[in-house]
Design a protein that fits this description.
about 400 residues, 4 strands, single chain, two-stranded antiparallel ribbon
Length: about 400
Amino acid sequence: TDEANYDIINRTIADNAWMVWYRDVLMDLQEARLTIESTAYATTEEEMAAANQLLIADILECFVYERMVTLWGDIPYTQALDIENINPAYDDAFTIYNDLLVRLNADIAGLSPNAGYGSYGVADVIYGGDVDKWVMFANSLKLKMGITLAKSNATLARTTIESAIAGGVFTSNADNAEVEFLDAPPNTNPLYVDLTLSGRQDFIGTGTMIDSIMNPLEDPRRAAYFTFAPGTEEYLGGIYGASNPYAGYSHVADAIATDPTFPCIILSYVEVEFYLAEAAARTIIPEGDAPTHYENGIKASFAWWGVDGADDYIAKPEVAYATAVGTWEEKIATQAWIAFYNNGYLGWTEWRRLQYPTFVPPPGAAMSDIPLRFTYPVFEQTLNGANYNAAASAIGGDNLTTKLFFLK
């Protein structure tokens, strides 16, 4: 229960995340780029396909850096991934964010004219080498980044969102960027490893989601998310942050826990529709479109999970955009948070940006406030101390509650 009580130090959560992103993702992408650039190609078609491969790899790098910047704030960027520089300086987070938008724009422009030349083919486990899908992915990522900036830089947010929509964002669940896992280790979904192969019985649903939000709304997605509590026909959530008896509460649904091929969503149409609803609520696009995009986000979530009853659910006064309680922030954030069940980082970021749904820190929490970021890895303090100290000072202190650039 360490993480649930906001203790990310005891099990070195920040250190592990930092290593995975830099060492196992960004370095792999860099090595792929170096390999592509050093390969001799026999035909123009192969050269153009290689050019597309490089641009797609760059789009994925932008996705990764966007995640890291919104997780930590200032991070190594211009000096990162250089084996000759073991003490990289940290770059300003907003400066990185702005540069990522520049890179995405260049990637989109570079991919579009060459769409007929292909890219990775079947080696692309997300889109099967479909270049047009990657253009759509990049525009959807731009939309996400524009929405993220809406509070801190309204002008850049507006131009980014308008540009993304004009370029073409996701229009259905068929556009989702998903990784399909295999049915045999070591290439199964990590959830299957943790929840089934481990033989452990650790994880239950919490009252925060089940009892406080989904049960009052009689949300039909409960059956896709959770099991009934053992021996009952009820969905029951445990106390968040506490050690709860496994036999007393709802568990993760079997369709998730016992399916080794259950997909991982990287960027989705559900996200896009909720971002468009917010863009409308902020009058970046026609304000009257907010209810439509809000409803589309809910419907897309129901459809992805294979759950019926979206129209009846949306018609509930507690759910309908016109009658649901609260501001537009509360309405959109609450439904987005429910829909982001299997992507916890999105749910947390939605809450960080809009401050809804309303949460209460667990009684045993290491701090009284809900975290707004990860602290930097402990090994950065010891191995890259001078640059770590400069970065911590620049963002206002290396604390879980320090507000990052997009929250100010």
